[in-house]
Amino acid sequence: MYLPSEWHQQAFVQLTWPHKHTDWAPVLADAIDCFCEIAKQITPFEPLLIATQNPEETKLELQKRNISLHNITFIQCETNDTWARDHAFITSIDETNKKLILEDFQFNGWGLKFAANHDNQINKSTYPSIAAFYQSKGLQTEYKNSLDFVFEGGSIESDGEGTLMVTSSCLLSDNRNNAMSQEDIDYYLKESFNAERVFWIKNSWLAGDDTDGHIDTIARFCSPTSIAYVKCNAPHDEHYEGLQAMEAELTSLRTAEGKPYTLFPLPLPDPCYDTDGERLPATYANFLIINDAVLVPTYNQPHNDAQALSQIQAAFLDRKVIGIDCRVLIIQHGSLHCSTMQYPLV
């Protein structure tokens, strides 16, 4: 049993749809535009599962934009928000038994910052459809209740070969698993995902980030031997020292064969602010790898967008790289990867 990499062959991707009773209300039309674009780009490559409070309204929004529904499954459930990366199942593979282990961790609104009572129940609503989908492929599933451990999908990276990457700022933050030390959590992750190594990244801060420094905002495995990461070249920027220190951490890491990783630096976007003047956590590291493609958040910054797309294309030579304007997503302090969760095939 192991936690696959994101570039592993996928069965489908999950989205959780925005609605008027979420924090998206002031920019709901723009948020729905963005979610529709994400759906439009995913469905030519693989199926999509959408968890939504109102399936009929969601279908109409997609149809209004001429997006085919033929590759989409809709699940009705109550939701607080839309960050599927953090409330959806984290799926491991049992190759021996051709089985998927869908692990349901506790989602508590990133350390009790936001309401999560509905989002923490979404997996119970989606599991029957997910199990049926896998069964149609001749694969079995196991629902694993891990609700005694607070854990979010955006807080972990896997190379699919026994190496995990996390941040100490998130996993050791208040109101998650306070009774556990780093050594305890390290052991727990290795046991849960049958991993051999856990890289703990100490420098992970982005202004405006509500997650306490999820790894998927700053550094991502692109292969067992390569990592894409956020690099800051502006000494006057508030992130400069921290991201320089993170770069040094990544430079010191070694592959399972004892070699340095190939590093793909991604530009730090120019500062983006909300209407109150708060800096938003724009990052190109929040890309989503799907079958034969990589979806990359862009921020209407032509030079930075082009540089990020070029670097990610260099990291994924065998995949089509597609940019999606995610300026509206960062208003709620997330981006493209945060909005999605992939489910693997055996």
The strand order across the widest sheet is 3-2-1-16
N→C terminal distance: 11 Å
Poorly predicted regions are none
Largest sheet: 4 strands, mixed
Helical amount: 25-40%
| SSE class | alpha/beta
- Taken in chain order, the helices and strands follow as EHEHEHEEHHEEEHHEEEHEEEHEHE
Strand content: 25-35%
- Annotation field: number of helices: 10
Oligomerization state: single chain
The total beta strand count reads: 16
Rg to the nearest angstrom?
19 Å
Shape: globular
- Summarize model confidence as the mean pLDDT: 97
Structure description:
With 346 residues, this protein is an alpha/beta fold. The protein is 28% helix and 26% strand. It is built from 10 helices and 16 strands. It has helices at residues 28-42, 55-64, 84-87, 109-112, 122-136, 168-171, 182-193, 240-252, 302-315, 327-331, and strands spanning 10-16, 48-52, 72-76, 90-94, 99-106, 140-150, 157-158, 163-167, 197-201, 219-223, 226-231, 262-267, 288-290, 293-298, 320-325, 340-344. Strands 3-2-1-16 form a 4-stranded mixed beta sheet, sandwiched between helices. Strands 4-5-6 form a 3-stranded mixed beta sheet, covered by helices on one side. The model has no long low-confidence stretch (mean pLDDT 97).
